[in-house]
């Protein structure tokens, strides 16, 4: 172990902690990477080689996607979110799945790994596999590589075993990996996306948990969406539920901000919402005269020693929340194919 390795303890989602190491470059950090492995010796060689190329690597032994996500959260909170995810053996399956939950991912590398989820569009993929691997057959690498989108690369680790037990094999894999990663990182001095930019980035991908299930990554937050039974499996709110949640949350936040600014004795806000499709003839003040239209009913409960005048003012303010105004304004939605 070298002085460039720093011990780190990560909190696990199911409780307890995970011991990890952070390999740091001697000079400026060009980017951060996460390495989930099953061989401490090979992982150390890879991490130290990448550190020599300017990458800081957080490495740990795990095959759990939640551990990879937690590791990324740790780097994001304390340094910078990882742009490279590396997985050895079953750790490769974990980083493939995590690439859809870590919005900052630019490149994914698997080493002697079973096939898994395909990384998001425009995420570079390097598949490294030993043709003579007796634990995970080379066919797994073939399935993953064929299914993945470009940019993608494949490197055969001729003569190596599953754990890269021979130091020479580990060194070769590390050198090739470092050279490949360098091609898929921003040039030195390129500013990383700001926290504000990431906060407004939402990525939705299909989930394998249900026919219509979706994984939603909003900045560093994870959500799910689905359709109710029998069409779906009810693994998450419906899209309209999420729309109502956005309006309700925005309404409550707007009321709280106003009450704080005006020093009103507002203790608690609760917003109930319901969406329905109604006939236009049932709406007296709507521009649409025929057919069906959407109606959202919003009921607000205000707890606190408020006067009637204060309650009326809060009701008026509720209609000024940004999401409410967006739903009432002209919205341009630009849709294009990616890749």
Notes on the protein architecture:
It holds the Pfam family OsmC. The protein has 9 helices and 13 strands. With 339 residues, it is an alpha/beta fold. The chain has 2 domains: 5-183, Rossmann fold (3-Layer(aba) Sandwich); 238-328, K homology (KH) domain (GMP Synthetase, Chain A, domain 3, 2-Layer Sandwich), CATH 3.30.300. Strands 1-2-4-3-5-6-7-8 form an 8-stranded mixed β-sheet, with helices on both faces. Strands 9-10-11 form a 3-stranded antiparallel β-sheet, with no helix packed on it. β5, α3 and β6 (107-111) form a beta-alpha-beta unit. The mean pLDDT is 88.
Determine the CATH topology of the largest domain. Answer: Rossmann fold
Tell me the fraction of residues in β-strands, as a range. 25-35%
Name the CATH class of the largest domain: Alpha Beta
How many DSSP-defined strands? 13
Average residue-wise pLDDT: 88
Helix content: 25-40%
The fourth-level CATH homologous superfamily of the largest domain is Alpha/Beta hydrolase fold, catalytic domain
InterPro entries: AB_hydrolase_1, AB_hydrolase_fold, KH_dom-like_a/b, OsmC/Ohr_fam, OsmC/Ohrsf
Pfam families: Abhydrolase_6, OsmC
Protein name: OsmC family protein
């Amino acid at each position: 172990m070298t002085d460039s390795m720093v011990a780190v303890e990560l909190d696990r989602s199911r409780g307890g902690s995970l011991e990890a190491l952070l390999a740091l470059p001697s000079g400026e950090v060009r980017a951060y990477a996460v390495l989930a492995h099953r061989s401490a010796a090979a992982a150390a060689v890879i991490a130290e080689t990448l550190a020599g190329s300017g990458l800081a690597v957080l490495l740990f032994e795990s095959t759990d996607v939640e551990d990879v996500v937690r590791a990324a959260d740790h780097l994001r909170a304390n340094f910078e979110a990882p742009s490279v995810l590396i997985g050895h053996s079953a750790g490769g399956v974990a980083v493939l799945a995590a690439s859809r939950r870590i919005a900052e991912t630019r490149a994914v590398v698997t080493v002697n790994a079973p096939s898994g989820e395909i990384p998001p569009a425009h995420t570079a993929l390097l598949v490294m596999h030993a043709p003579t691997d007796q634990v995970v057959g080379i066919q797994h690498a073939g399935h993953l590589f064929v299914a993945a989108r470009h940019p993608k690369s494949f490197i055969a680790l001729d003569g190596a075993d599953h754990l890269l037990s021979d130091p020479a094999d580990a060194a070769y894999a590390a050198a090739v990996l470092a050279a490949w990663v360098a091609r898929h990182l921003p040039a030195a001095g390129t500013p990383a996306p700001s926290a504000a930019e990431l906060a407004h980035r939402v990525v939705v991908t299909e989930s394998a948990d249900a026919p219509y299930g979706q994984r939603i990554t909003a900045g560093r937050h994870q959500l799910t969406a689905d359709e109710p039974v029998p069409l779906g499996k009810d693994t998450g709110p419906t899209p309209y539920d999420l729309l109502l949640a956005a309006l309700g949350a925005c309404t409550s936040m707007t009321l709280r901000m106003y009450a704080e600014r005006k020093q009103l004795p507002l203790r608690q806000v609760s917003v109930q919402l319901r969406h329905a499709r109604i006939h236009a003839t049932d709406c007296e003040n709507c521009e649409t005269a025929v057919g069906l239209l959407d109606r959202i009913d919003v009921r607000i409960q205000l707890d606190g020693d408020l006067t009637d005048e204060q309650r009326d003012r809060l009701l008026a303010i509720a209609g000024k929340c940004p999401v409410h105004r967006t739903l009432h304004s002209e919205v341009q939605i630009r849709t294009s194919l990616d890749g």
